[in-house]
Every structure is written in structure tokens, then in C-alpha cells.
Amino acid sequence: MSKKIYAIKCTNCAAPLDILGGGRVNTLTCAYCHAMLDLNDHYKVLVKFNEIKRPDAPFEIGMQGTIQGLKWTIIGWISYKTIEFPSETWHEFFLYSPTHGYAWLINEKNQISFSKRIRNFDLYAWQTNYAKTIFYNKGHYIQKESKYDIYIDYVEGGLSWEAKFGDQITCRDYHGVTKKIINIEQSKKETEVYLTQGLNPITVYNAFNIPKEKRIIKRNIIERFESQQDSKKNTLENFETSDEESNTSIFRVFITLFILLLVFAVSSKFYTKPIYETSFTSDIKHNITIDSSGFLSSLYFSATGSGLSANLKIWLYKADKKIFYIDSDHVYFSKKDLGESWRYGSSAIVYLKLDEGTYRLIAKKDNPGITIHLKVEENVIRMTYIIPLLIILFILILSQYSHLLISNKIVIPILLFATFLGYNILGNFAIFIGLFFIFAYLQESYSNYSNHYPKYDDNDFFDDWDD
Predict the structure, then answer these.
(1) For residues 26 and 33, what is the distance between their CA atoms, to the nearest angstrom?
(2) Structural domain boundaries of the chain?
């Protein structure tokens, strides 16, 4: 493409105008008389906009700056307002690069963003249901607020289409996990999709040589970027990085946590090693050996009646040193009196963190008519520690796939109810089974959604010559 800048005179007021931006620029709006000229029909005046006040903005037509190593020229300018809140105004500056086509520099209050039109988005699939969540390049985007209507409040410079004052557009914004935004804009003539990424305002102002008195930046942003000293590429950092990497990482974290918890759960059933087991009606003394201190050891007691707490006392010694003691009133472990012991029921289980070695176990019972069953195990994993981790994992999964809950209002509650029912019948292990099916179902739904949207090469983002 040619890098030459052509100049003409406005056919309405004769003011000198520069023609920037290559062959796709179709209209040029005069900054002096606000007449829109048709560049494809001998600069014919398409429409006149009288008494249009030029808004204040830090950027100007003709300014040049570098974004992510690419040189861009501002060739057009559109200001927008929301219909519901007309006080909300922002500016979008049409950019042109001889090697990478067209894009937009968005200046909204204290924020600056870079936006470019994308053409490989499956618009037809989106228009079938106007979903609250979409997938693009395996990236996950959620519509956090409802659609809103805007209108054009000011036009200046060259554009690739005929933008009229007062033209209305319906917008929907979808926010991604990597702070990217997909903007879908619907006008009377067409629907366009843009991919937007926030920029470092200080870097952009410096790149376009904006005077300090025209810069609009929040103080906390200044302090943050000054502390960073612009040591990183802040303008479009990771803008070309696929959202798939982030979603894949989240998925891998979920899978890793789930596998670890599942391994611990299975270990609690199969890795536990029995040390000693007996049923007795009289006092007993027995030596037990703990071979591993990596996990807990457990002492399980059950009685033929409800007289366990009133009739049983247990001592545990190591080298004639009392390590553990329990009865109906006290619990003693490792030089500490832990207070009240069991009071009710016919069974109990005690978990101890015992070092490797040989211990002397003494059990006494007051009522010879009651039979007590005793079982000692090592390498025990308490499900009490795993269940909270499962709950945290479940919350993370629901937060990641919350959009799927909206479209699956029946299936998910059924799975949750089945998990609760299984827990009451089968115990803690049912939680793993239920969580597995819920997670598998959500992942399958995720895959079905994402398959609607094609994968593309991120390099196409800057190779697209369309606006």
C-alpha cells in the first residue's frame, strides 16, 4: 500500500483536508464544516451537520504512534453516547497501518483500549440464541451486563463506511478470563464483532506524543506504572496470546486437584494397613508396631450395647512413657489433657499421629458382660480433611462453568441430589463419584459449546486488512 498522504479541499467549505488511510476509506468528514464527502463519487457532499460542537479528546487526526511494535496513524474519529445515559461519552479513533490494515484506539474516561474487527467468529451460531456466554478460539467469554444502545455524537476524518450523526447501534460486551473483551455491535445494516484489549495509558500517550496537560489518567494508574517503570510490554501485552492457554490451565488445575483428592480417597480405602484387631470381654495388653508415620493411625472401638463410654479405658505407652489415654471423662495425648471424651453411642474412632516404633496397648472394661471390638490401623487418611478440599474444588468448578448452570437447570440439580443421596447411603466416597459425574457433564457441555466456534491462528489478528 502507498504511504503517501493526499490533500484536497472540502467541496463544501474549501477547507484543506488530508486523505489518510489507503483505499478502503470511503467517506471523509470535514473538521470545519462537518460535511461528509463521498471519496468514491468526486467528493460529493453526502450530508451536512451544522452546529456540531467538536468534543475534547487527547488524540487528533493525523497523529502517529506505535502499538506493540507497529506504527499506526489516526485517520478517523467517532464519538459515542449511550441512549440511556447520554452523559456517558467516549471516543473511538480509526487507525491505519500500511502493513496491518485498520483498527480502533478507544478512549473512554481514564481507559485506553485497542480493538480490531474479527471475521472468523461464528456469528450465525451466536444469533440463534444470543447466548450469555460464548467461546472464541477456545476462549471463554461471559456477558456480565445486558445489551445497551449507543448513538453517534460526532464524526471527523476518514472512515470505511458512512457514519451519520445520530445513528444507533446495539452493543453486547463479552468479558474473557484474560481481560479481553469481544464486542458485538448491531446496526440496521450489519453486525460486526471486535476483539478488544486494554492498553497502558501512559505508554500510549508517550507513543503518540500527547502533551501532559491533555492526558487523562487516574492517579493510582500513574503510581502503578511509574513503579513498574514500564519494564514490561504493557501496551498490548499478551494480546496475541490465545485464550485457550488460560482455559486449558484452569482445566488442568481442576483435573490435577480432582485426581489428587481421588487418590487420597482411594488410599483411605485400600492403602490403610491393619495392625491389630480383636474382640474381648476382659482386659487386654498387646504390643503394636507402627511402621510408617507418614499418615495417621486409628483406633476403632465398638461395643455390643451402648455401654462403650461407661466401660472402656485405653492406655498407649511407648518405652514405658504414656503417649495416649482415654476414658469417659478425659482424653490425654502427647503430654496434653484434651478434655472430655466420648459420652454416647456404641462405637468410636480415635485418630493419632504416632511416630514409628513399638507401643504397648492396654484396654480395660468394667462390665464383663459387654463384648468390645478393637481394630488398630496405620496409614489412615481422614476424609474430614479431604471433604473441605472437595467443596473448594466444587465451588471453583461451578464458578468456571456457571454459564452452563443456566442452560442446565434440571440436570445439575439432579446430579447434586443424587450425590447427596449417595452420601447418606454410601458415605464420603459417594461425593467423589457425584463430583466426577458433575465435572464430566460440565466439561462435555463446555466442549459442545466450544466446538461451535472455530480455532484460528492468532497471527491472523494483525493480518486482517479489513476494518
Answers:
(1) 18
(2) 6-239, 247-268+384-450, 272-380
